[in-house]
Amino acid sequence: MVHPALEPYVRAVQANPGPRASQVSTAERRAAYRERAEAVRGVPEPMYAVVDGAIDLGDRVLATRFYQPFEDEDKALVVFFHGGSFVAGDLDTHDSLCRRLSADTRMRFLAVDYRLAPEHPFPAAIDDVVDALQYVKRHWADFAGPEAELIAMGDSAGASIVAVATVLTRKDELGIAAQVLIYPTLGPEVVTDSAHTYGVGYMLDLDDLRYDYAQYLGDWSDHTDPRVSPLMFDDLSGAPPAIVLVAECDPLRDEGVAYAGLLEHFQVPVTLLEAEGMPHGFLRMGGVVPEALEIVDDLAQHMHRFVENASL
Hints:
single chain; alpha/beta; eight-stranded mixed beta sheet
């Protein structure tokens, strides 16, 4: 059941869902995503410093935004990758979430703006995330102190890419203390109970998601490739410890739970959190439901525990 504070918003979206993803241009889709993000974000958390920058990878440049909270403990640098179904989202759409998490965790955040489909289809986004993590490790002194830990974090599509990237780099000695996966999407073949229950009218429409996957994958047709569907990995041993946050009223909930179980099967330490009554994307909805901010606070505490355990 949807949280009472969110029910009017969800019902309004159900009554006026707007055009399908397949019925608008990519530019219109991205503009609508930005407008929704602005409408529900709430008051941005003040920061000690917010600095826009870039990661120069030679053949391409990725925009970044660095956040330093007032109560900076320099215990970890969180490299964050936004959601948006692989086709939308940017540094601005997730600015409030990064600010809140940075303040609550007392950790520095580096949000990275990876390439989007359809202009840059699979595996461009994965390449960007892998290369960005490696860049940060090579230039560590530019972002954090020598004793700080590295955390890779993403929401939705960003969480999917982080899940893949942390497996692909597990032998690279990046020293990733934790991967934080917020309501991850884990492949285009969504056939779970939660998808059946919440696949229409609960903030994430599965028809739109499947269309976005088609945009993202382009000519790539192998959905069993674990880089497309991380649940298909046949070995996750050595992946970083994980926090997986799922939302009760999210069609992707059961996939997230299954991935947490798969990680656990391969002896990867996992903390599974479920936000009761919340739909997909709720963490960015602090302006609509204050309870979402309480869950952000709880997530921050779990991230602190992972950092403390990594430093032991």
